[in-house]
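Sequence in, structure out.
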Amino acid sequence: MPVDLLLETDFDILIANGDLVPGESTRQHQSLLILIEKGELREFPLRGVGAKSWLNDDQAGDLNAQIKREFEADGQRVLLVKTAANGNIQVEGVYE
């Protein structure tokens, strides 16, 4: 279970009482992996799914497979990846 600096829903750093807020960050890591495009992380340029680029793609199964690969590369055991017709993505993964 990773602990990291927490982010607001708009991905700004969460600050409370003038301090950075640490906390359990699994969901945050998952969200970021799904949203970022490859090349956006300087330290890990091959990481990221880039979900926005999949919006008009009719092959959701490929998106699910890409999410699973990225989570596993990040050290997670993937329990579920499901994409709904409305664009919602349901994921369950845990760090080992």
